[in-house]
Amino acid sequence: MVSTYRIQGATGEWEVVIGLEVHAQVTSKAKLFSGASTAFGAEPNTQVSLVDAAMPGMLPVPNAECIRQAVRTGMAIEAQINKYSRFDRKNYFYADLPQGYQISQLYHPIVGEGQLLIEADEKAGIAEDKVIGIERIHVEQDAGKLMHDQHPTMSYVDLNRSGVALMEIVSKPDMRSPAEAGAYVRKLRSILRYVGSCDGNMEEGSMRADVNVSVRKPGEEFGTRTETKNVNSVRFVMQVIEYEANRQVDVLENGGTIDQETRLFDPNTGTTRTMRSKEDAHDYRYFPDPDLLPLELEDEFLEECRASLPELPDAKRARYETELGLTPYNARELTAEVETFGRFETLLAATAAKIGKPEAKVATQVANWALSVAPGVMKSLGDEADPANATAEAQASILAMQDKGEISGGQAKEIYEIVLKTGRDPEEVADTEGLKQVSDTGAIEAAIDDIIANNADKVEEYRGGKDKLFGFFVGQTMKAMQGKANPAVVNQILKDKLG
Amino acid sequence: MSVDKATVAKIASLARIKMGDEELERMVPELNGILDWVEQLGEVDCSGVEPMTAVIENHLRLRDDVVDAIPETAGGRREDVLANAPAAEHGFFGVPKVIE
Amino acid sequence: MPKTANKLTNLGVKDIRDGVAGGDFTAREVAEAFNAAVAEAAALNAFIITTPDHALAAADAVDAKRAKGEDLGKMGGVPIGMKDLFATRGVQTTAASHILEGFTPQYESTVSQNLWDAGAGMLGKLNLDQFAMGSSNETSYFGNVNSPWRKEGSNAAMSPGGSSGGSSAAVAARIAPAATGTDTGGSIRQPAAFAGITGIKPTYGRCSRWGVVAFASSLDQAGPMARTVEDCAIMLEAMAGFDPKDATSLKMDVPAWEAGLSADLKDKRIGIPREYRMEGTDEEILKSWEQGKEWLRDAGAEIVDVSLPHTKYALPAYYIVAPAEASSNLARYDGVRYGLRDLPDGAGLQDMYAATRAEGFGDEVKRRILIGTYVLSAGFYDAYYNQAQKVRTLVSRDFAEAFGQCDAILAPTTPTASFPLGSLNDDPLTMYLNDVFAVPASLAGLPAMSVPATVNADGLPLGLQIVGKPFDEQGVLNAGLAIQQRANFTAKPEKWW
Ligand SMILES: [Mg+2]
Ligand SMILES: [Zn+2]
Q1: Residues β-bridged to residue C122
Q2: Does C430 touch chain B (CB under 8 A)?
Q3: Which residue ranges form the domains of chain B, and what is each CATH number?
Q4: How far is CA A159 from each of CA A43, A49, A239, A381, rounded to the nearest angstrom?
Q5: Last residue of a domain, one of A281, A301, A321
Q6: Alpha-carbon dihedral sign for residues C220, C226, C232, C234
Q7: CATH at C27
Q8: Whose CB among A138, A284, B59, C259 lies 3.0–4.6 Å from A109's, allowing a Cys bridge?
Q9: What element of type H or E holds A296?
Q10: What is the DSSP letter of A52?
Q11: A379 pLDDT band (50/70/90 cuts)?
Q12: Taking CA atoms, what residue in B is nearest to A293?
């Protein structure tokens, strides 16, 4: 394990130890224990059932979809799925917690140990691939939301989020640098989105991390950790680690000790501070929720979960390299996000069909188009482009024309520009806008005959062995043809005529 | 195990029940009386016995992921939810200002 | 009219239902008669609030149905008392606690809704021990319930039992033909025994807990309290049923218990648990137990000895499990969303919680919350809570083994008859011991019933308890019926209110 991230202190080097508890909102229409909607952005307290508001006598009934998604997520990280699990109550008093307890899982979580691979990334300082252990995933209720700035002496409580299902994904303390933690969150997000168990929308709070940080001299025992709550972007996670690691080193080197405490991150200053509202000693008095029986999963259910899993990022990336022959870079770029591979695979299938070759034969061309050419054109057009025109069908047409030599790379871009702006058919554009290469040997031959006649000296030199001049003749021909000649045809005729 | 006044104060604080000195004093012997009595459970040999989870054999039933499937446990009833609130304002529950 | 009214209030569920259906009297006449009886009985303090209009509206609906020849429902035309632990839409629901004073639910509990759907009406919300914590009805914020019974030659106010003491008092006093109760550790059976009426706690999960203010979730079960076994069978049929809103609800059809009633116990074996012969049990209670055996033998049953070795530990286990669950269940009463809020000057959120809960909860509730908080707190969970749940497994196993040798178990309901209000106030433990015979069946989730057997030398009722196998309410009801037919319990409290 190579990790180069070290904090340089007055007393020497320090290593940072990081564990993450990621809360991911489970993709479901209704809440974990009530029928209220989970939709984002509703008016305050409009998506609150009597159950979510903890009215007297209300009872929880679990949502099967939330259980299913947690199990599928567990399978995606190759984790132990516990056929027997239980919901426990975590008791504490807070205004965003109507029941006075959170229904969570402590003693028997639904998912046990698993793992996740983060890839080497030299630029980020990750020297080689690394497996990060995952301790567990449990299912629990989200809390409501408190608003502090609407009234001079009151806080306002909105329970719309109260009872929304979360998966808490707890890593082992296996990360050693902000970059590794960043890569872990990105990879986890990618997997969740592949699986479809969480939309990964960090701005809307669908994913947020509790960041556990401690420091130690390399090789020594773990130090005391702090937990910074509810950090909602990859960048912030990295900032928290950076800040906390340095703060802790300062404290320790000045003879202080680290309190095991809960902290808050301030994105404006990039710093963390002790959380006042959670200052009293925790004693959550966990016990099995007597309103809910143990959750026992049937084999059939597990099989159904497994069968419904898509190809996951690591497997897909490997397949892109071995079966499609893509470069490791392209394979990684294309598999990082659900949207990217989705668009790529659709385009690949359409292109292969149009050209009539196996996917593997056109994959590199399509990958280059998808990763650099197409985004470049789109970007250069800015607002002029209508993304709705970027259909797989249109792009496949362009790629097929290019594959057949009917258009050049430059023409492909030009055609795509027009397609993006207008939604016109690419072949029609190529025809009517004169954006096709001339493969008509008659016209090309005539042009070449002229050039040979007008450059007798150069022809002499070429035939005398100055091979480099071939490029000159190509250039002259293309110029004469106004750039529209098929380069392959030009080459062939030139070779024939120059001898 | 018996509790002293400080322990009772700690429990009362955990349970968010404000108690004055006199009340705490009074609670100490009452709670100890009960705790001493329940302690006899320690006599029972429970090795190999699982703690009870379901009193009557029954499996946890799950519901389908359908919004507002049952009216009584549906959302979209803010009026009802806020109807009994001691301080409801602008569609929110009001509480004394919390500093995080 | 008063004379008829008096006659009507002597009727039970079955007679009212059949009388209304048969046109002997109207549902409205019945409702008016009971409304009047309730209004006259304020001295019992059995009701926290009365709802005469609810009873009348339900009665009118039944009368209208009858005029149209429609089905009147299982409880058609029967006005009942509703324990104030059941949420009733638009009608104050308090659990007899200051902390819920004025709380008006925007929803109806499943059980009460089932009853209204079956044609019943509501006379009012019945008083109880605060949050159903108590065995004497002395912990209500709204004052003690006075039993209609008094010792012969005494004017001392007696306990109606608890926690369903408003229910037992109302039914015994004939101001309600029947009432709902809830039983967590004897809260239907013990007050039924004290008041000389009949009450059954069905198998855990038969009656939905949705909309019932929770005390201890793994134990709470609703059930009917009435004057006869038949009435209980009818009312339980109306109350019970699968509810998708309660994850612990039993997904089973409700048997036709009324139709299945039979006092013939041929081929039935009744177990007598030897561990229930406890020190401190009243001689007269032991005598009535012996009498009970005779009655059941007379009904054709074979009496067999059985052993429930962990009986002694049931009560202490209960006093860990129930307070633990309660400490968590009652955390929601925090002054934020409903109920009392006590906000001292300058108080922060956590101070508000502490002040509200100090002001809103009564002493017994506080005591149990503290015990429950303590036994769940860090370092004590295994020694107390987990150990208690293991003992609970053993108690349940005892019953399962006993039921290998018998079909039902006969025992006293309580170790003593009713006692004067105030007599056990300083002694929570002695009070708790009142439920020593009732709690084991609660811990095991079993159906159990109390049937009046006789009166003691003081003229106070004594009850006998029948505990059945899971789901075998029919067996319990049938044994109860056999006792009822032989006990011929006709004693009635003399009207002093
Ligand atoms: Mg955490
Ligand atoms: Zn969590």
Answers
A1: C80
A2: no
A3: 5-41 (1.10.20)
A4: 10, 9, 30, 44
A5: A301
A6: negative
A7: 3.90.1300.10
A8: A138
A9: strand A295-296
A10: T
A11: very high
A12: B60
| CB B45, CB A12: distance < 8 Å | no
Residues in chain A: 499
User: What ipTM was reported for this prediction?
Assistant: 0.97
Q: What is the DSSP string of C154-214?
A: ----B---SSTHHHHHHHHTTS-SEEEEEESSSTTHHHHHHHT-EEEE-STTSS--TTBPP
User: For testing the chain B interface, which of A34, A96, A287 should be mutated: the one with the most B CBs within 10 Å?
Assistant: A34
Asked if A403 and A464 sit in the same domain, the reply is no
What is the distance between the alpha carbons of residues C99 and C330, in angstroms, rounded to a whole number?
10
pLDDT tens for A383-442 read 999 999 999 999 999 999 999 888 988 899 999 999 999 999 999 999 898 888 777 788
Whether residue C59 is contained in a domain is answered as yes
Look at residue C425 in the predicted model and tell me its pLDDT. 80
**pTM score above 0.90:** yes
| Cα-trace Rg, chain B | 23
Residues 6+ apart with CB under 8 A from C154: C458
Domain match, A268 and A379 both? no
Q: Give C484's contacts (C-beta < 8 A, 6+ positions apart).
A: C198, C228, C229, C451, C452
Ligand 2 centroid–CA A209 distance in Å is 10
Same domain, A292 and A196: yes
Catalytic site includes residue C287: no
Q: Which residues of A touch C337 (CB under 8 A)?
A: 53-55, 98
> What's the one-letter identity of residue A476?
Q
Q: How far is A61 from A168, CA to CA, in rounded Å?
A: 20
Could you give the maximum distance between any two Cα atoms of chain B, in Å?
58
Give the residue, A498 or C246, on which the prediction is more confident.
C246
Active site residue C187: yes
Catalytic residue among C168, C187, C249, C450: C187
Helix, strand and coil content of chain A, in percent to the nearest 5, comes to: 40, 20, 40
CA distance A309 to A76: 8
C54 touches chain B (CB under 8 A): no
Closest CA to C245 of C212, C223, C215, C222: C212
Separation of CA A32 and ligand 2 centre (Å): 14
Q: The domain spanning residue A490 has which CATH number?
A: 1.10.10.410
**Cα–Cα dist C75/C225, whole Å:** 14
- C355 in Cβ contact with B13 (< 8 Å): no
Q: In what helix (H) or strand (E) does residue A262 lie, and over which residues does it extend?
A: strand A262-266
Domain that holds residue A170: 7-301
* Amino acid, res. C153: G
Cβ contact C458:C417 at 8 Å: yes
Count up the domains in chain C and report the number.
Answer: 1
DSSP alpha helix (H) spans, C307-362: 311-329, 349-360
> What is d(CA A378, CA C359) in angstroms, rounded to the nearest whole number?
67
Q: Which residues pair with A85 in a beta bridge?
A: A295
* Each residue's pLDDT expressed in tens, for chain C with a length of 497 residues: 455 677 999 999 999 999 999 999 999 999 999 999 999 999 999 999 999 999 999 999 999 999 999 999 999 999 999 999 999 999 999 999 999 999 999 999 999 999 999 999 999 999 999 999 999 999 999 999 999 999 999 999 999 999 999 999 999 999 999 999 999 999 999 999 999 999 999 999 999 999 999 999 999 999 999 999 999 999 999 999 999 999 999 999 999 999 999 999 999 999 999 999 988 788 999 999 999 999 999 999 999 999 999 999 999 999 999 999 999 999 999 999 999 999 999 999 999 999 999 999 999 999 999 999 999 999 999 999 999 999 999 999 999 999 999 999 999 999 999 999 999 887 888 889 999 999 999 999 999 999 999 999 999 999 999 999 999 999 999 999 999 999 999 999 999 99
